Structure formats: C-alpha cells, structure tokens
C-alpha cells in the first residue's frame, strides 16, 4: 500500500478547488476555497446547446483545468502536467509522484467512479489522489461526494481513458511551490480584472453577460425544448444550485471571494462589486427554483419569470464587472 502522509482529505464544494486545496496544502499553502476560485479567475457564464445534447447546459465557471492553470501562473507555482494515450504510461505518471510522497491531481469522467451514485458522464471532473493498494485508489473529492473516498483501480482507469466533451488524455498533474513566500494578496486585483475583461467582452453570444441575456430569452422555450420536462428541468436546477457549484451557479463562491478580498484591498470598486454579486447570487438561486418548479408543474409562466430574472442578472453582473474592471493594480 502507498499513501502520501499528512494529506488534508476534507472535501470542499467544487471539485477542482478541492483538488487544488489538497495539492497546495501539501506544499504549505493554505487558502480558502473562494480565494482559490477567485485567484483562478474562475467565474464566467456559458449557455451551451447542440444537436447532440438532450437539453441545454448552463455553466458558471471557466472550462476544466483553466482554473488550475490560472492559479499556478498567478502564484508562481511549478505545474507539471502529464497526458498520454497509453494506459500503462498514464499509471506510471500517477504512481511515480505518489511513491515519492506527492499527491496528484487527475481529470477524469466521474461516471466510472464507484462512489458516484448519480451516473452521468462528466469528463471534466477533477480529483486529488493520495494513495493506492492492489485494488483501490484513495482519492479526495468534494464534500458532497464524501471527501476522502476510494474507488476501484479498474474503474479509475476507465474514468481516465474516457473520451467525449471536456475529456483529457489521462491528464494528471502536480504542483510545487517556489522557494520564497507566496503572497496571494498581490494577485487579487489582476485576477479580478482578468475575470471582468473576459466576462464583459466575450467572443461569442453564448458567453459572459451576453450569454446570460441569451439564456433569459431561450429559457422561456424549455418546456418545448425538452422531451421529458419533469426530468430535464429539475436536473438543470439541481446542477445550478447544488451540482458542485457552491450554490447559485458559482456566484456564492465569487461573492465570498470578493468579500475576503475587500478585507485585503481597500477599494470602493471592489466593495460595490461584492454588493452586486451578493444580489446576483440570491437571484441565481431564485432562477433555479423557478426552473425546478416549471418542470414539476409544467407551467410556462415560471420560465417566463425566470427569463425576466436572467435579464436582470445580465444587467447586474455587467455593472459589477464594470466596477471591478476599474480596480488599480
């Protein structure tokens, strides 16, 4: 049996920040989950729909692994990423660091993990691995999934080899802190401004504030868009509010990040942005409740109301990001 010593195996609310927390604490860096999310410029919005999907997807964060890359770049961490098409090499890329006493991050498809009771393919899931024996892998996942968990090595291999949307080629990664002290405070403003810039100036209409506005128009059609509204709409609401987002489609996490940052950076722009995101978080929870109610009742009026709230959210978040974009480095 191989296990990395002194691993903090408490799961957080979101998968990628949970894995980051494990790897960073092993390097002596202890940051809150909102701070990790914010330093990674993790907040965005995407309305994703295609012919291959059963139902539209609302996303509130940047694409998988971009958060990790952003945090590593901002804090000056050495991020070593391994990808391969070979299952044998993929295992060596994980076993090597573990045998040396270093936890490893993995991106995989959660469908194949034993402890997941909701069997839905999601290849953008991220976990931290801190040990293995002849049969099982020892992982840290979100608090919702149990924190410190085990899964069969056979299933782990399938999860890592999975192909499809958001998948990676057996991706594994490690983080190493620099010799000097890491000063997260110095990187708060650049992280916020980068997030604001991307949100305010998205390249396509499905992203950022434009995506929220588009969602407000299209959500009204969801009863007709779905073959099974009683299944699809409550599931969409669940993913928005409780599916590893930290609540309110990640707006709760960003609200808390801005509040923590306001204690470190004295700025009226920052305080205004935090106030507006506190309002936005409440409204996103309201949208999720309306979508869920529409699916249960088959009442289109709930979706019309949700669309109105989304229009207001596009305005509120745009105003918040404009304020945050005015921060001085």
TrEMBL record:
What name is this protein filed under?
DUF4872 domain-containing protein
**Superkingdom, taxonomy of origin:** Bacteria
Organism encoding this protein = Streptomyces spectabilis
Q: Where is the Butirosin biosynthesis protein H N-terminal domain?
A: 14-142
Using the record's annotation, list all stretches that form the DUF4872 domain: 155-324
């Amino acid at each position: 049996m191989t296990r990395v010593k002194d691993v903090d195996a408490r799961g957080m609310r979101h998968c990628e920040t949970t894995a980051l927390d494990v790897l960073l604490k092993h390097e002596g860096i202890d940051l809150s989950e909102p701070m990790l999310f914010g330093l990674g410029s993790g907040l965005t919005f995407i309305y994703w729909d295609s012919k291959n999907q059963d139902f539209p997807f609302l996303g509130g964060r940047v694409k998988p692994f971009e958060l990790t890359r952003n945090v590593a770049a901002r804090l000056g961490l050495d991020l070593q990423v391994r990808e391969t098409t070979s299952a044998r090499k993929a295992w060596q890329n994980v076993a090597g660091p573990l045998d040396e006493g270093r936890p490893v991050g993995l991106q995989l498809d959660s469908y194949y993990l034993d402890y997941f009771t909701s069997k839905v393919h999601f290849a953008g899931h991220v976990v931290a691995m801190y040990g293995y024996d002849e049969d099982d892998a020892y992982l840290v996942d979100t608090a919702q999934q149990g924190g410190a968990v085990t899964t069969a090595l056979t299933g782990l291999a399938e999860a890592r080899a999975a192909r499809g949307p958001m998948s990676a080629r057996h991706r594994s990664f490690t983080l190493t802190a620099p010799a000097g002290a890491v000063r997260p405070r110095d990187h708060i403003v650049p992280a916020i401004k980068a997030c604001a810039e991307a949100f305010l100036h998205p390249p396509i209409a499905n992203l950022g504030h434009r995506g929220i506005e588009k969602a407000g128009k299209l959500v009204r059609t969801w009863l007709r868009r779905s073959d099974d509204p009683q299944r699809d709409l409550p599931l969409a609401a669940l993913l928005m509010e409780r599916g590893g987002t930290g609540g309110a489609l990640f707006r709760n996490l960003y609200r808390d990040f801005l509040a923590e940052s306001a204690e470190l950076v004295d700025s009226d722009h920052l305080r205004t942005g935090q106030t507006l995101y506190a309002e936005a978080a409440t409204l996103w929870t309201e949208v999720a409740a309306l979508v869920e109610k529409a699916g249960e009742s088959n009442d289109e009026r709930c979706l019309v109301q949700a669309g109105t709230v989304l229009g207001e959210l596009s305005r509120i978040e745009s105003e918040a990001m404009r304020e945050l974009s005015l921060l001085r480095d």
